[in-house]
Amino acid sequence: MSQREPLTRERIIETALHLIDGQGLGRLTMRRLGDSLQVEAMAIYHHLPHGKEQLLEQLIAHVAALPVPPGDGDPRERLRAWAHAYRGRLLEHVGVMPLIVTRRNPGALTATTLSVRELLRAAGLPEAEAAVGAHVLLGYLLGAVALEAREQATGTTPGDVDQDGRFTAGLDRVLAGLV
To answer: Do residue 30 and residue 69 come from a single domain?
Structure first.
């Protein structure tokens, strides 16, 4: 008889992500999540007292919060590396994208936005331009991933399109306008 893994907030979020990644956001229910965790759905409320709303907010934070790592070096290269990592995370959990772009969650992107803005300020942009630049860069990333995910889901990506190359070309254009 094997011992079950303890129920934690992290395990709940990871299992919910697994469900969304495999079955889609519309199939996520507290009952299905409980079944996947091998617990009664009510046990989840011990870790997420506000239920599904809190779970959705946690999913957004888990996927969308990815600050630029601290460090030195060329700001453009640091932003490029971060943008590729961010795109990878969003594509890995593309089922959460509708939540990221439609739900009101002021905290989920705050650390990410502030870290991008700080790096743009360190690169010499005034505060107002850095704020706009962070908005533009995040807008490009979210939009590019949403379009890429739609193309993958509908099979409408032209056969000769290199999605990595297309993303990088667009990113380079955005970064050229920023730093």
So the answer is: no
pLDDT exceeds cutoff 90 at 152: no
Task: Give the pair of three-digit tokens for residue 40.
Answer: 């009664």
> CB-hemisphere CA count at 13 Å for 123?
25
How large is the average pLDDT for residues 69-95? 92
* Domain housing 153: 63-178
CATH of the domain at 111: 1.10.357.10
Tell me the per-residue pLDDT of 109-142, one tens digit each, with 9 for 90 and over: 888 899 999 999 988 999 999 999 999 999 999 9
Please tell me the pTM assigned to this model: 0.87
Nearest CA-CA partner of 63 in 12, 35, 97: 97
CATH number at residue 38: 1.10.10
CA 151 remoteness from chain centre: 18
List alpha helices for 24-126, DSSP H. Answer: 30-37, 41-47, 51-64, 75-92, 97-102, 110-122
